Amino acid sequence: MTSEDLGTASPVKTGDAVPPPAPDAPADRAGGGVDKGAPDDREARRAARRSRRYQRDARWSPYAFISPFFVFFAAFGLFPLLYTGWASLHKVSLHTPTQMEWVGLRNYSRLLEDDFFWQALRNTFTIGVVSTVPQLLMALALAHMLNYRLRGSMFFRVVMLTPYATSVAAATLVFAMLYGRDYGMINWALGSVGIDHVDWENGTWTSQFAISTIVIWRWTGYNALIYLAAMQAVPDDLYESASLDGASRWQQFLHVTIPSLRPTILFTVVVSTIGATQLFGEPLLFGGTQTGGASHQYQTLGLYMYEQGWFNFHLGRASAIAWTMFLILIVIGLLNWLVARRLQKSD
Amino acid sequence: MARRAGRQLHGGPVTYGVLAVFALGSLFPLVWTAIAASRDNQRLAETPPPLWFGGNLFDNLSTAWTDANMGKALLNTTVVAGSIAITTVLFATLAGFAFAKLRFRAKNLLLLLVIGTMMVPPQLSVVPLFMAIAELEWTNHLQAVILPMMVSAFGVFFMRQYLVSALPTELIEAARVDGAHSLRVVWHVVFPVARPAMAVLGMLTFVMAWNEFFWPVIALTQENPTVQVALTGLGRGYIPDQSVIMAGALLGTLPLLIAFALFGKQIVGGIMQGAVKG
Asked: Which of residues 191-250 of A touch B (CB under 8 A)?
């Protein structure tokens, strides 16, 4: 907070109600407490002092109010992010994290030569697509239905949000059991319709599909609520005129709802994409190993970073992976910006 | 009655049917967690899988409580998520108020910066944070997981959106004319008006902090875990008994499920409020 100095006051002309927030003259400090001026003079001075204090307060308090956020973000977000870039140019061992040995870009070149890096990049991409696209489409459909006048609509909303209350860890442990090869519920259900047991965890596509369903399960309801909020903000008369033009429900959805939701859809695509690049807990706990399956078949970039840093003890290489992920995010951000600009132009 | 448009349409049987399927899909894995937690390991290795509750729930819960350290984990997570929720709400309300109602230079730029920070995943910053807590010897200490999460850009944005419309500017001006210092304004005017949004943000933050995964798994060990760290221990095979693992998952989720049962309406409202951009 800005400190308030109550004792100091510099002489101010009467009537000067709003003096500029000048720095106080320390010379007046001595006379501050034993002011023997005329009563109205003293009154004026007090008013001036108050008004100056008011000015200073009005000027600086906004910065004081926003500073905790920025200070904490700088200390625990921005600085570590930049320092990760610095660390990625060094050899750093997990056991002696304060000893850094300059290696230039070697961590990056090692990364590009590592097949597991490329595999993790591919896995992150496929799991990201398989988990995000159906999730957002289903969320849109759900939001559309929740937007009808319904009995128990709050009940449906809360129930569909309960997966969001379930942590990555708890959800993954349960799904790993449901997808179990020998005794899992899903294979049992498939078996009852004549489909042979699937070895979910050991196949590439099957394991990535299974992991995607965990993500879909946890986030569909949440995104549906975000779409629902946007749908409720669409003005009624748009629908009214559409229905007067004879538009069916489906046509209304296509030609009124979707265009109005465009910014929200873009927003959820960005958030889900960022989330997808960071996937970590699901692939870690689905099989319980940091390699993401026996042949790394579902290891994501996040998990690969964890393995390099905390199991192979190469913090420098883990930093290089983190910065590679950061670069990918910047590319995604630019793409998104281009798409958004396109859409704005086409309107 | 005139033709009704868009949202006023009543849902038909198909709508209810589809919603019911989604509701079942949302609840089934949770119900099955409880079913599996009430059985024993042998029963879970049989076909068909159990579809109804057995009698082993309390045995498994108490095993998870002691052997998987879930008791300590629940206490730790309450402390961590509680501290994070309190500081986040406090700082978000102050900043949200400034962004909503006060005038200062570079305000729009700074607000844009706040929103921009939401796009940077904290996972990318873990290496230096890990180096720092190793240096400070904070590994396994709760402050290591509390400090990096004490503010949230979402929270600032959320409170700003609420206060822009909920807090009448005249109310602040009136207090100002009475000579109130801005901290007094915050205490006597802003906080009372912001209280409903603060409560919702507190709940949302608590849920997020409770489920925070990556950083606690790196910063803490099984000796002093949060719920997610203890569950990770279970998932990585420290206890091979599947029914105990499910009991742990149930214990770790139950507090939030109870909160959802009690405050589901407010939480849903909060997420929808935070979604509408202004």
From this structure: 217, 220-222, 225-226, 228-234, 236, 238-240, 242-244, 249
CATH numbers and ranges of domains, chain B? 69-275 (1.10.3720.10)
In the DSSP assignment, the letter for residue A253 is: I
Q: Residue A153 contacts by C-beta under 8 Å, 6 or more apart in sequence?
A: A146
Per residue in A292-314, pLDDT (tens digit) is: 989 999 999 999 999 999 999 99
Mean pLDDT of chain A: 85
Q: Nearest to residue B88, comparing CAs of B178, B157, B19, B161?
A: B157
* Neighbouring residues of A38: CB distance < 8 A, sequence distance ≥ 6: none
Stated pTM of the model: 0.87
Nearest CA in chain A to B98: A62
Q: Give the pLDDT confidence of B114-161 residue by residue, as tens digits.
A: 988 888 888 899 999 999 999 899 989 999 999 999 999 999 999 999
CA B55 to chain centre: 32
Q: Is residue B216 left, alpha or beta, with left meaning phi > 0 and alpha meaning psi from -120 to 50?
A: alpha
What residues are paired with A91 via a beta bridge?
A101
How many percent of chain A have pLDDT more than 90?
Answer: 55
Please report, for chain A, the start and end positions of each structural domain, with discontinuous segments joined by +: 26-63, 106-346
How many A×B Cβ pairs under 8 Å?
Answer: 331
Question: How far is Cα B86 from Cα A44, in angstroms, rounded to an integer?
Answer: 43
- A302 has a chain B CB within 8 A of its CB: yes
- Residues near B220 by Cβ (< 8 Å), separated by ≥ 6? B139, B140, B144, B145, B226, B229
How far is B232 from chain A, CA to nearest CA, in Å? 6
Residues B26 and B61: their CA atoms lie apart, in Å, by 23
Query: Complex ipTM, two decimals?
Result: 0.91
Q: Which residues are registered as beta bridge partners of B258? A: none
Question: Residue A159: its chain B contacts at CB < 8 A?
Answer: 23, 26-27
Contacts of B222 in chain A (CB under 8 A): none
The three-state secondary structure class of A24 is: coil
- The residue type found at A228 is L
Residue A282 has pLDDT above 50, yes or no: yes
User: Confidence class of residue A47 from pLDDT cuts 50, 70 and 90?
Assistant: confident
Structure confidence at residue A117 (pLDDT)? 96
CATH class of A106-346: mainly alpha
Give how far Cα A329 sits from Cα of A134, A173, A277, A278, A325, Å.
21, 29, 8, 10, 6
Neighbour count for residue B51 (Cβ, 10 Å): 9
Q: Is the pLDDT of residue A259 over 80?
A: yes
Q: What is the mean pLDDT of chain B?
A: 89
